[in-house]
Design goal:
Elements lengths: L3 E10 L2 E11 L4 E5 L6 H8 L7 E6 L2 E2 L5 H7 E4 L11 H6 L14 H13 L15 H13 L5 E5 L7 H16 L3 E5 L3 H7 L2 E6 L2 E6 L1 H4 L2 H8 L1 E6 L2 E7 L1
Parallel strand pairs: 3-8, 3-9, 6-7, 7-8
Antiparallel strand pairs: 1-2, 1-4, 4-5, 9-10, 11-12
């Protein structure tokens, strides 16, 4: 079974600790939201877990293998990663950008095998991009481009998705649309770990919430168990009312 696992994972930059003793697990069937204030260590945790950033202690494994020792192709077949910054070197068509997700299988835009083409078509359909297939990416809105990047990740047919702020800068409608797509991906038998800043989105979609503060994971569990006014006060310094999965922020301390 596909699994991303960290044990006592730590990351340092000089004398500064970015991640301190993080234990994290992701398997198919879960949509895990990673929450915490800016500077809590969320991005460093993701990168170190995937073997993309050097760890100072602990271990990180993908399907039982040390993630830092995987080749880019091996890693891409096991997990699709959407970083915070997703620049495109030059404008291209939506289909060609999505086809980049088949990199792990030796494919290149314009040179797709029938299997690669089918995976690209399925990803385009899943992300509701069929009518935009031939559009240049520099003509798309922010919400449309976010869906293109999701489709590029899904085209890899990886069993796990790790996405760092996939809904950042999107309006509420497009935030829901992207999270619906991720939810469908998980419901199809995959697993997703998503960094979010919108607590209500996390409460609505996540099966688990992992909370970070000051470089540490301070809680990990179902929204019903970990989403409390006390938690929000501790993590974010805000006054909030929580009813089930509904959150209302009333102000700061």
């Amino acid at each position: 079974m596909a699994e991303l696992l960290t044990k006592d994972l730590s990351v340092k930059a000089g004398a500064t600790t970015l991640v301190n003793g993080a234990n994290l697990r992701l398997v198919p069937g879960e949509l895990v939201a990673l929450l915490g204030p800016n500077g809590a260590g969320k991005t460093s945790l993701l990168k170190a877990a995937l073997g993309l950033e050097k760890r100072s202690a602990g271990f990180a494994r993908l399907d039982g293998s040390d993630s830092a020792k995987l080749s880019p192709i091996e890693r891409a077949r096991r997990v699709a990663y959407l970083p915070q910054q997703r620049p495109l070197a030059w404008p291209n068509t939506v289909r060609d950008v999505v086809a980049l997700g088949r990199y792990a299988y030796g494919a290149a835009p314009g040179h797709l095998s029938p299997e690669d083409a089918a995976a690209v078509d399925q990803a385009i359909k899943r992300c509701d991009l069929t009518e935009l297939t031939d559009r240049q990416t520099d003509t798309l809105s922010g919400g449309e481009l976010a869906r293109v990047h999701c489709a590029r990740a899904f085209a890899a047919d990886a069993p796990l998705l790790v996405a760092d702020e996939p809904v950042a800068a999107l309006d509420p409608r497009h935030q829901f649309r992207i999270m619906d797509i991720v939810r469908e991906y998980v419901d199809g038998g995959c697993g997703a770990l998503v960094v979010l800043h919108d607590i209500s989105l996390a409460a609505r979609y996540a099966t688990r919430i992992v909370w970070m503060k000051d470089s540490r994971i301070v809680a990990d569990g179902a929204p019903e168990d970990t989403l409390t006014p006390e938690r929000l006060a501790d993590i974010y310094g805000v006054r909030a009312t929580v009813s089930g999965r509904a959150v209302e922020i009333r102000g700061t301390f």
